[in-house]
UniProtKB/TrEMBL annotation, chains A, B:
Enzyme Commission number, as recorded: 6.1.1.12
Record GO biological process: aspartyl-tRNA aminoacylation
Keywords for the protein's UniProt record, in alphabetical order: Aminoacyl-tRNA synthetase, ATP-binding, Cytoplasm, Ligase, Nucleotide-binding, Protein biosynthesis
Organism: Haoranjiania flava
Molecular function as annotated in GO: aspartate-tRNA ligase activity; ATP binding; nucleic acid binding
The keyword ATP-binding is assigned to this record: yes
Region annotation Aspartate: where it falls in the sequence: 195-198
Record gene name: aspS
Keyword presence, Ion transport: no
Protein name: Aspartate--tRNA ligase
Localization terms from the record: Cytoplasm
């Protein structure tokens, strides 16, 4: 037996017991003729005391950091207690020890503040994983998974595995493909999600399905994307949107409770997609703080913006605003006293290529109630006050205004809002605000092909009130200029996204379950009957044999864990992540394969 | 809201309540002017009663099997109770109904005894999955998974996900490969198991890891293999074999309790690999029944058999036995009265090509104590009695004897033993017998390359007492004829298989954790240092930084479920299995991909 206890469990109640421990050498401190060693394992750290004789042994048999050590000894009360660790009241008086394995000097320190850079830590990921910070992340991930499984089990969901070797359906993101040796010249694809299979399970009557499952997307990787990622994938039968929302609010609240010990008792807020875009400039608003976007050009809710000029700035003579498609303002609380230098820096910030604005106008709403703007000459104080009112500014606030093309300006203002929220400390890692975003458009217009594309995926149902519109209208767009006037432009999806602290953590929809409507959807997306049958014939077939109404959701498990762990990076929450080129630098994959393998697959490299 | 209750939960206590149900039409029975419909969902079946008026409505709006129906009505006590189903005390008096979806006539009946053949049921798997038999299998699978997770959680194991896109290491079975678009000309491989990653997690100090995880093997498929299959994959640190055995006996006993409500209180039996081969003729004996193999040529334990002739048949003159490498007997209880015809049929059975014997000798040990053999002229009654003793036969038994080449004969006798066990009803689906098979040889001899191959995998540790033998001897085999005399031939592995009712359900080992020993293993397997570094450099690297002693096990989840469900076929326990050609005939995968995809991957078909 290698150990009687682990390194995290000995307490004062075990004093005088003979015990055996095994673990890694964290630190070695020699004081005169005795030696203290901190022994570490997954469960904690225990202090070992090597007396004179053993310390002499150590001189000829030196230990180093990360050596694997087994010690036999007796538990003793410490004179100098360490209140910071659970084992801090005791130490182990070592009788004998065995070096189970040696360790070379690690390429970086195994500590919370490691001196290892990203590349080095990825190459030696097995050492990086020893660090407490990373271990805590994986423990949190496990806790989130376990909480999820428990909740869904109690709610009658069944974990059912769906296949990984499926069929390529090149829609949206690229599939990874897998050449088949037994079926010459043919390929499997790795699933981007188990979407069609979970729908088939509903057709099969499984009623409530879930899976925590790997999915694959061969996309060019951005900073925080991984070619393989994990979803909490769920589907339910005989449900309407409201049933799904309430079930999965319940899931996330349960995770909060189990993992963070947070009672999220408040009602989860809801917002239409239009409101989100109008008030926050994006479809996943961070509602931990207000600072809503005010539209100075359109007084009423019009989205997307149309030409017009009847808003707050009507009748003024500032060409930059008058020529702009959109003029947006936010009121930054308590920032009226920003220095010239601070304002210049902010202006530079919005002029960065990632944001891409030409400049920024500001209005100080001073503590004394006076208003002062960088473009005073174009605006009367009365007009400035009107703007301040529309932006819901109070005395002491700083109003920031951006103007330009609708899409870019809205995006820029959304970014600026988030940046100001961050600078003002309004986006706290330990505060969690959930939000449902609802009523997304079902279709987006694709200019290149002058046709509709599915905003979510082709299985998303229109809102019940829009089904008739969809069925009774021809999807063809006669005049590309006027696509917004096509009835399809206003069809809303029976879809929902769950947003947590400004991140989309989950999304789903009520699905189409009627064969005719599904066929109409494929039509709308420009898919021929033949193509639809080749790709999704099995689903259309299934819809002929009594498909129930159903809907579901998928959560991005990696991101959910990252946010709960207070991190922006999903990579920190994946045991063996890939880098931005899709490489695992530790195992050095992908790699060449030998020509024999290629021959067997009847493939050659171009 | 689509329903207030599901189809399995209404009881007599709900009588007079207004309820809403939704589900599938299982049966329609019209009695005069009223109609009974059985409505089915995952949870059960509820009887609906359509009165005169609604029955008339049905005439003009006919329902069919598998229609999706929503009904509103009132719960009533049934006059004619059905004790076979939990809802059998009540029925629902329907007030109104809505057809949620129609159904075409299914291509086979959705019943336990379906009229659908294998091919049809695979093509319409979403309908096959509706059948109660299949549903029960998937429910059992979910229960086994849940039981596993609960037990392992309580034992301190963490579920940690390992990557699916890894590196090809062509050892043993073939990898599925995945071309990388971003890393031109390079390929990922899908894991055959997370072996090296779970070992790295031990090096990282995670102490107890598990995963229920898909694995992939591009093998030519036999009847009961799938290209993608699921493992319960586990690893522990600071353990010896005994720790692993006791932990995972615990797991399987827990599954028995949770899933089958069986208290498996007896000690799990253990057997060395040599004993298993000697007494049962294979390394996964079905110990639900005895009928051990008796060796008539070698009185003592010698395995593999060597030339010699000192056994029970010594001094006899039957050339077939004397020329054979091996002569094996079993005593079939109570079969002495088999007819000539039955014996002929058995002889034909062993002569089938799958078994491949030339013939079979039998001895009847009659109820009166006399002995009668098909080869009486070569054996005295005294000799027959000696044989009967060695075979542990009693009066009334039938002794069956096979003779021939060692390997084939042993295999044939093993098959014959299983067949007789089956015919005699000694292999009961609802009786479960666990067995650990231990002390496997570490190496097997590969004739073709005159070198050693790993019987399990190259990370399996030799038994502690054999480590010195392994390190101090040169693996090279000077004389192929005498490979059995090489010290490596006798090295035993620190490996264990768990056998349930004659099926290997799990296997594992204590791993090598010392860099030198691992390198020696790669040497022994004929892998150059360069090759070893290219393939497993990360693992050898990890072993330099303080690898702890560790070991683990992996259970075949599909097979475990099948056996617990009393089935031979794993396919019945997989929601969407592939056929023997590795095809999913429902979605028609694998399939061709378009040339654009191939171009992006820089691949061409030969």
């Amino acid at each position: 037996m290698y150990r009687t206890h682990n390194c995290g469990e000995l307490r004062i109640s075990e004093v005088d017991k003979d015990i055996v421990l095994a673990g890694w050498v964290q630190t070695i401190r020699k004081f005169g003729s005795i030696t203290f060693i901190d022994l570490r394992d997954r469960y904690g750290i225990t202090q070992l005391l090597f007396g004179e004789e053993l310390t002499a042994t150590l001189d000829s048999n030196p230990l180093g950091r990360e050596f694997v050590l087994q010690v036999k000894g007796k538990v003793a009360e410490r004179s100098n207690k360490n209140k910071n660790i659970p084992t801090g009241d005791i130490e182990v008086l070592v009788d004998s020890f065995t070096i189970l394995n040696k360790s070379a000097v690690p390429p970086f320190t195994i500590q919370d503040d490691t001196d290892g850079g990203d590349d080095l830590r990825m190459k030696y990921r097995y050492l990086d994983l020893r660090r407490n910070a990373v271990k805590k992340n994986l423990e949190l991930r496990y806790a989130v998974g376990r909480s999820t499984r428990n909740y869904l089990h109690e709610q009658g969901f069944m974990d059912i595995e769906t296949p990984f070797l499926i069929k390529s359906t090149p829609e949206g993101a690229r599939d990874f493909v897998v050449p088949s040796r037994m079926n010459e010249g043919q390929f499997y694809a790795l699933p981007q999600s188990p979407q069609t299979f979970k729908q088939l399970l509903m057709v099969s009557g499984y009623d409530r399905y879930y899976q925590i499952v790997k999915c694959f997307r061969d996309e060019d990787l951005r900073a925080d994307r991984q070619p393989e990622f994990t979803q909490i994938d769920c589907e339910m039968s005989f449900v309407e949107q409201e049933d799904v929302l309430s079930m999965f609010e319940g899931l996330v609240k349960r995770i909060f409770k189990d993992v963070k010990n947070i009672d999220y008792n408040e009602q989860v807020q809801r917002m239409t997609w239009e409101d989100a875009m109008w008030h926050y400039g994006n479809d996943k608003p961070d509602i931990r703080f207000c600072m809503k976007l005010a539209n100075l050009k359109f007084p009423h809710y019009v989205f997307p913006a149309k030409q017009g000029d009847s808003g707050t700035i009507a009748g003024t003579d500032f060409k930059v605003f008058n020529d702009a498609e959109t003029v947006l303002a936010i009121a930054v609380p308590g920032a009226a006293e920003y220095s010239r230098k601070q304002l210049d820096e902010l202006t530079e910030w919005v002029k960065r290529p990632q944001i891409g604005m030409m400049g920024m106008v500001n209005i100080r709403y001073n503590a004394d109630g006076s208003l002062k703007s960088s473009v005073d000459k174009f605006f009367t104080e009365d007009k400035l006050r009107q703007i301040a009112n529309v932006a819901e500014a109070k005395a002491g606030d700083l109003i920031l205004i951006l103007a330009g093309r609708e899409e870019r300006t809205r995006k820029a203002m959304s970014e600026l809002r988030l940046e100001m929220g961050r600078r003002l400390g309004l986006r706290k890692d330990d505060e969690f605000k959930l939000l449902w975003v609802l009523d997304f458009p079902l279709f987006e217009y694709n200019e290149e092909n002058n046709r509709w594309v599915a905003r979510h995926h082709p299985f998303t149902s229109p809102k019940p009130s829009d089904i008739e519109t969809m069925i009774s209208n021809d999807p063809a767009i006669a005049d590309p200029e006027k696509y917004l006037e096509h009835p399809y432009a206003n069809i809303k999806a029976n879809a929902y996204d769950m947003v947590l602290n400004g991140n989309e953590i989950g999304g789903g929809s009520i699905r189409i379950y009627q064969k005719e409507l599904q066929s109409k959807m494929f039509d709308a997306l420009g898919m021929s009957r033949e193509e639809a049958n080749e790709k999704f014939g099995f689903l259309l077939g299934a819809f002929e044999y009594g498909a129930p109404p159903h809907g579901g959701i998928a959560f991005g498990f990696d991101r959910l864990c990252a946010i709960l762990g207070g991190s922006e990076s999903i990579r920190d929450f994946i045991a063996f992540p890939k880098n931005n080129s899709g490489r695992d630098v530790m195992i050095d994959a992908p790699a060449s394969i030998d020509s024999k393998q290629l021959d067997e697959l009847r493939l050659s490299l171009k």
